[in-house]
Amino acid sequence: xxxxxxxxxxxxxxxxxxxxxxxxxxxxxxxxxxxxxxxxxxxxxxxxxxxxxxxxxxxxxxxxxxxxxxxxxxxxxxxxxxxxxxxxxxxxxxxxxxxxxxxxxxxxxxxxxxxxxxxxxxxxxxxxxxxxxxxxxxxxxxxxxxxxxxxxxxxxxxxxxxxxxxxxxxxxxxxxxxxxxxxxxxxxxxxxxxxxxxxxxxxxxxxxxxxxxxxxxxxxxxxxxxxxxxxxxxxxxxxxxxxxxxxxxxxxxxxxxxxxxxxxxxxxxxxxxxxxxxxxxxxxxxxxxxxxxxxxxxxxxxxxxxxxxxxxxxxxxxxxxxxxxxxxxxxxxxxxxxxxxxxxxxxxxxxxxxxxxxxxxxxxxxxxxxxxxxxxxxxxxxxxxxxxxxxxxxxxxxxxxxxxxxxxxxxxxxxxxxxxxxxxxxxxxxxxxxxxxxxxxxxxxxxxxxxxxxxxxxxxxxxxxxxxxxxxxxxxxxxxx
Length: 481
Known about the structure:
Blueprint (H helix, E strand, L loop, with lengths): L10 H10 L4 H19 L2 E4 L1 H16 L11 E5 L26 H8 L3 E6 L11 E2 L3 E2 L1 E2 L2 E5 L5 H8 L6 E5 L5 H7 L2 E4 L17 H4 L3 E6 L2 H12 L12 E5 L9 H14 L4 E5 L7 H9 L5 H7 L7 H11 L6 H12 L4 H21 L3 E6 L10 H6 L6 H4 L1 H8 L4 E8 L5 E7 L5 H15 L16
Parallel strand pairs: 2-3, 2-8, 11-12, 11-13
Antiparallel strand pairs: 1-3, 4-5, 6-7, 8-10, 9-10, 9-14, 13-15, 14-15
Helix pairs in contact: 2-3, 4-8, 5-6, 8-18, 10-17, 12-13
């Protein structure tokens, strides 16, 4: 019979249980496979599975345990990975129809590290086309739904990961984040997520490739899951380094001012006040607006629009004579083109916001100046902010808010864009639900080198507010044959 408790367990727990002989890897992998088969028709999170290979790997993992062979920290643990990562023998499509038969022969760097640690990959999860939107939908695999309410967005671009982990479809997962792509799905689906700081984890084998240096500093390759301790474990494996031990007692905690110009809904405002009050009992905690906060969304949009997103356009339209404008109009009318309106409109926006060479030089100067200032600002300091101004809305709402011609990204993107522009590590921790019963979370940010402090404070918040709660809407007893 299905053991529903397993689906709420994190990778740290399951790894220990395998090593102690409480469960075999084969048993766990079988349980998770059956669970995915049951929930995936509703949420559409897993777009390609490797169930057969996963079971064979689980059997080998069990044999290694029986032979007392040296094992890694994720030995026999079933995980999921974002579709954008190369996994040997699987597809990396970016949601593009013309890449649907493309198989890769080499693992991405982070996949190699996870396999060496003993992880067993169950399958790959859905993304928006070329990861170029904060909502997960594409012409090849379709739309991913939020498990808490199927009419609502799972976020993006790691939306498939967020949705699958929300229902407990894997012990832990892997996402990527250049514009909130780990943090939006973590917030909307009620899971833990960690975007590392710039240049901390290799992005080799991630598609699409990010080659521009200003864009590359914004990219974070990181884990998603059910506990802060898993984020610490996975980050250590993925980065290949252990975080330095830190004492967080001297840290100042800045909490983003909950009212004023911030577009938070009532529950979000109240939440930030509660967090500031609670943490104020143990830390020097104040409401504050950090340096460069107001300009971060504009900088993010301009950096993402460098060269008018020519590389993304080339991947999406390799031999198509349609321009993004024509593709957008035709898709809006016929719904029969190869390109979702999300992608076409985002490409149009990239062309409109493309910075001049002079502006690019100005941006580079601002970033150099800001890096120095923020390195000092985040010395013994952690910033707490919302992830978005509300819980997960209906499909299409986030896209309209961020990609509006009214430039409303300036209003809604600072919460997430700040960590991308300045290359900061950011940890997302669920803290409850909004009035509609949808998960809501907060994020903790600091600078490279302060990861241990982020994880320690994250564990304090996780304990106080409950952290991850699995969505069990789809549970039922079924017999595993």
